[in-house]
TrEMBL record:
Name of the protein in question: Abortive infection bacteriophage resistance protein
Lineage, broadest ranks: Bacteria, Pseudomonadati, Bacteroidota, Flavobacteriia, Flavobacteriales
Organism, as annotated: Flavobacterium aquaticum
InterPro entries: Abi_system_AbiD/AbiF, Abi_system_AbiD/AbiF-like
């Protein structure tokens, strides 16, 4: 008796030459097939498919629009790759600043083990998860400061103090620690004020957004033309330079407003930063990239925030 499994995936693997033929038959043109074969040998067909998808006029049969070129697919891919490099650099500066402020302000307001004090946090279960992740990170680390601390204080069952422990944790964990702090904690507002976020109401959503974008960058995921979390809370009257052409809620899925948040924070951390210049150069390098796919507003670089 034979069996048939409804909806069972039955496609077999295809060679690189077959992949090129499939794309040609669907209407994608190639200036240099040897170049394309080399790219497909190093960047998977499936990954590149995220960039040629918008070039297809029939998403069911996967046929391409007239004059769709493989070289334009590669341009989109390389633009996105360089954009991730740029944002990873920007986010690193924000992450280091957040880490520094958390360690400094809360260690002074309470003590160097504040991050283990359940009385300071809203959600005990969430803190247990954060501390469990921190414990794993500390066990894996090769940093001599942690190893030496554990040898010297082996009878102390606490984590090493904040200035040692939190240097080993991720941006996501730092963001969760900040967001989970009780709103009555003075340092929570102080840190928000130093970032230009006025108070604790707004900064957690900004950090959550940046954490997710950082994860996309770290895992080489596409940012171009991607729907992003739209949970951002925006200040009605930002104390520092901001944009006049503010996107509406429907635009929050695009990268632009998230870039604005990063720029706003970075302007407070490093006033002479080159974020605007580097972003402009990237768009100029890849003129076939439509800025609207990122939600960029017309003349965005002329906004006070970006000047």
């Amino acid at each position: 008796m034979g069996f048939y499994i409804l909806g069972m995936f039955d496609k077999s693997a295809t060679s690189i030459s077959q992949q090129i033929e499939i794309l040609k038959n669907r209407g994608l043109t190639f200036k240099d097939e040897a170049f394309a074969a080399h790219q497909l040998a190093n960047i998977s067909y499936y990954r590149l498919g995220e960039y040629w998808y918008v070039m297809q006029d029939d998403k069911v049969n996967h046929t391409f629009k007239l004059n769709s070129k493989f070289e334009e697919v590669m341009a989109l891919y390389n633009f996105d790759r360089e954009l991730r490099f740029l944002l990873f650099d920007v986010i690193e500066r924000i992450e280091i600043s957040l880490r520094t402020k958390l360690i400094y302000h809360l260690s002074h307001e309470f003590n160097p083990w504040w991050f283990q004090n359940f009385e300071l946090f809203e959600d005990s279960k969430a803190l247990v998860k954060t501390l469990s992740g921190l414990e794993e990170e500390l066990e894996r680390t090769k940093e001599t400061t942690i190893k030496n601390h554990n040898k010297k204080h082996k009878d102390d069952k606490r984590f090493p103090p904040a200035w040692k422990s939190l240097e080993q944790t991720s941006f996501g964990s730092l963001s969760k620690l900040y967001g989970n702090l009780k709103n009555t904690i003075k340092s929570k507002d102080v840190i928000a004020q130093e970032f230009g976020a006025v108070n604790h109401t707004y900064l957690p959503s900004w950090l959550q957004s940046i954490t997710q974008i950082r994860n996309y960058c770290a895992h080489h995921s596409r940012l171009w033309n991607k729907n992003l979390p739209s949970t951002l809370k925006l200040l009605s009257k930002p104390p520092y330079k901001w944009i006049t052409d503010v996107p509406n809620q429907n635009d929050f899925q695009y990268l632009y407003i998230h870039l604005c948040i990063m720029k706003y924070l970075l302007n407070n951390i490093e006033p002479e930063n080159q974020f605007t210049t580097r972003l402009k150069i990237l768009f100029e390098k890849y003129p076939n990239v439509d800025p609207k796919a990122l939600g960029m507003k017309p003349k965005w670089e002329e906004e006070e925030l970006w000047k």
